[in-house]
Design goal:
73 residues, alpha+beta, two-stranded antiparallel ribbon, 2 strands, elongated
């Protein structure tokens, strides 16, 4: 059985993934909407993310490790 392969450029940097058809068909059965996930992110979501990143950039003291969140929960 063929396996998943990571494709690399001449410098050894990963540039893609080869997924054999049998594995891809299994993935599509498990996640039927997977091919729709390639759609562009709506502009309002991009704007929201950009605004959050800007806040984090100007207020780095507000950033906390995720472990602290898990402890609180």
């Amino acid at each position: 059985m063929a396996t998943i392969q990571i494709l690399k450029d001449q410098a050894g940097i990963p540039t893609g993934v080869f997924i054999p058809m049998q594995i891809w068909e299994n993935v599509k059965r498990r996640y039927p909407d997977i091919e729709e996930l390639e759609a562009d992110i709506p502009q309002w979501e991009k704007d929201f993310i950009d605004a959050r990143l800007e806040i984090a950039l100007h207020n780095p003291n507000r950033l906390k490790p995720v472990e602290e969140l898990f402890e609180m929960l």
